[in-house]
Each structure stands twice: as C-alpha cells, then as structure tokens.
Amino acid sequence: MAFEWTTDLATGNSDIDRQHQEMFKRINNLLDACTQQKGKEEIGKFLGFLEDYVVEHFNAEEKVMTERHYPGLAAHKQEHEHFKQRIATIKKEFVEFGATIHVVLLAIRTAGDWLISHIRKTDKAMGAFLKGA
Ligand SMILES: [Fe+2]
Ligand SMILES: [Fe+2]
C-alpha cells in the first residue's frame, strides 16, 4: 500500500504541488521502512520532517493566501492548526513511550489521510482561487 499523488490532487501552483509530492514521498518512505522492519528507526526522523517541512509548507500557503486576500484564509489556516496539533499529540506519545508500532502506524495514517483529504478539498479550492484571481 502506498499513498499516491495523482493529477487530480494538483492545485495548479507548481511550488505547492511539488511540496505535496515531497510529503507523499516521505510518507511512502516510512511505509517502505516498515515493510523492512525499520519503521521504528525512521519514525523520529519522520516526525521531525512533519514538524519542519509541513509547517514551512503551511506558512508558504498562508503567505500566498494572505497576499492574494483569499477569503477562505481563516478556515484554511484553522485546518493547518488542527493538523499541527495532531502531530504534536503524536510527537508527545513518541517522546513518552518511544518508537512503538502504534506511533508509527498512527503517524502514517494521520499524515496520509489528512494530507489527501486536505489537498483534495481545501488546497484545491485555494488553487482554483489563485488561478482565477
Ligand atoms: Fe498543502
Ligand atoms: Fe493547506
């Protein structure tokens, strides 16, 4: 099983799309590591990636939306904040209990499912606005 970036997830903004593709790649790398019984070794790195890269990515999107006076900015930002909180919760569990299989699976499922549904709905709506405006 892998999370796949398909063209129906394209926002039309090449920078944003490239960043989304990178996130899919990282999630799939972690999945691959799991099949090689190395998920527990990689989870710390993956959580670090989520904290850094994803937050940078959110900031980039929010910057463009602000510059273009996107009316959906506040709601979009709220979804980003919600995801950051979920990552913080997973990180907390990781710090407290270590690299358990539960943490690994939770991180993969949370990141993969959230990413796909957020891009499909929220990022694409943003992309459509940016293209049209
Ligand atoms: Fe995004
Ligand atoms: Fe977004």
CATH fourth-tier homologous superfamily: Hemerythrin-like
Give the terminus-to-terminus CA distance.
38 Å
- Distinct ligands, ions and cofactors found in the model: fe (ii) ion
**Average predicted confidence as pLDDT:** 95
Which blocks of ≥5 consecutive residues have pLDDT under 50? Answer: none
When the domains are counted, the total is 1
| CATH fold-level label | Four Helix Bundle (Hemerythrin (Met), subunit A)
Q: What percent of residues are in strands?
A: under 5%
Can you give the helix content as a percent range? over 70%
Shape: globular
Top-tier CATH class: Mainly Alpha
Number of strands: 0
Q: Which value, in Å, is the CA radius of gyration?
A: 15 Å
Number of helices: 4
Helix-and-strand structural type: mainly alpha
**What letter string, H or E per element, gives the SSE order?**
HHHH
